[in-house]
Amino acid sequence: MEELLAPMEAAGDPARFFLGTYLRTTRAVGAAIDGGLFEDPQWVSDWDVDFAELYLDALEASRRDPASAPAPWREAFGTRADARPEAHVLLGMNAHINYDLPQSLIRVIPAAEFADPVVLGRRERDHERIDEVLAARVTAEDVALQAAGSRRTVVDRLASGLNRRAARVLLRESRRKVWVNVTALHAARLRGPEALAARVADLEALSAARVADLRRPGPVLLRLAVTGFGVTLPPG
Fold it and tell me: Residue ranges of the domains in the chain?
């Protein structure tokens, strides 16, 4: 990510906004692992790498052939270059949390661990502990986006405190829905590869459709704190 970020910044590539946020968050997760936050630090480390690879694969696919990236990432990478940095970050978060994260978790939690309540409980608690890391990053990331050139109106500045609280709320809400979707993907996995692929396709469509709400004008973070940021797979 460091190697990718430097040329993006030099070129003024708008993809730098999400990548910069993600790189700083990854460093924070690494520090939390070293600091003993998690019950199973090795598993969290392995998961963190797997999760990042999904983003990096989507970025590489988009640079090679934009149409080959998954639909939520096509929306994120296709955002207008002159959109506010927050818009690029929010659309990247939608693709990476709502679409990538359930897939990563299903990859690093094998079926045997789902059948073991003790291990599965440990996995779920470590998943929830990431919320502490993300919540602690909200203010710093807001400052970083301002430094990156985010245009702030008087109303934006007055609402900054509310927006930061709203960001913490929507991050918790979306990650809880992620775990619900992980359970749905696991149930599909037990039915076979075709069933799992169909549910992943459902998740892709839901995450891509979420973009319309993210692009609506108005106080996006405050609205999402009320209506929700995450997506939930329907029964199936």
Answer: 2-227
Please check the confidence at residue 110 and state whether its pLDDT lies above 60. yes
Evaluate whether 176 touches 231 at the Cβ level (below 8 Å): no
Pairwise CA distance, residues 9 & 42, whole Å: 32
Q: What is the pTM of this model?
A: 0.89
Q: Which of 219, 134, 144, 129 is nearest to 168 (CA)?
A: 134
With 70 as the cut, is the pLDDT of residue 164 above it?
no
Distance between CA atoms of residues 140 and 198, nearest Å: 38
Report the alpha-carbon distance of residue 131 to residue 21 in Å, rounded. Answer: 15
Do 182 and 233 meet the contact criterion of CB atoms below 8 Å apart? no
Task: Label residue 15 exposed, middle or buried (CB < 10 Å: 0-12, 13-18, 19+).
Answer: buried
Cα–Cα distance, 101 to 180 (Å, whole number): 12
- Paired tokens of 180: 């619900």
Asked if 70 contacts 91 with a C-beta cutoff of 8 angstroms, the reply is: no
pLDDT for 138: 76
